[in-house]
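The following block was generated as part of the benchmark described in Methods. Ligand: pyruvic acid.
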Amino acid sequence: MTTPAELLELSPVMPVVVLDDVAHAVPVAEALLRGGIRVIEVTLRTPAALASIERIATAVPELVVGAGTVTAPEHAKQAVDAGSRFIVTPGSTDALLDAVAATGLPFLPGVSTVGEAMRAAERGCSVLKFFPAEAAGGAAYLKSIYGPLPGLRFCPTGGITVSSAADYLALPNVGCVGGSWLTPKDVLAAGDWQRVEELAAATTTLR
Ligand SMILES: O=C[C@H](O)COP(=O)(O)O
Ligand SMILES: CC(=O)C(=O)O
């Protein structure tokens, strides 16, 4: 099983994907893989999400598939049953993190403040999602907290682009960044898997 720290090393960018159509799941995953990406976070924001995770886990095992936008304790078991290999939460409550930890899967708890990061660390979580990254202070914020909290490592997500990713990836406490720009809604709706591959390929040299 991949550790949380290893999850951040799989690719410089962790694609955060919203799938409206389960038929898109495997083509999107294959396009990301062809573009050099090794990980995908499928957000539980659509009715197609769990079935999409299931299909990717079965058909594209080279890509490490995880469930994102896990916001309620009952989502944790659903994510496991679908075949998720990791879990991401946009924020952290005790009940949610208890349920997610109980799955035994590696997970990235979402935090946006120093206090939340310290609470997560008290629970033994030192690899975290920083969300919403740009709105919560961006790369400057993460740079500032490295001094007092050098043991924490982050996957910032939220408002990051191919242009701003490098600023984050240059920080010692950032392993990868998350972003939806590799899988834009209109590109998926058009079934333009070549474009997904190109957007993915453009990120593999960022780190
Ligand atoms: O909710 C936002 C996603 O987790 C990241 O999306 P974004 O890269 O479009 O900001
Ligand atoms: C922010 C994020 O990655 C999530 O929705 O879980």
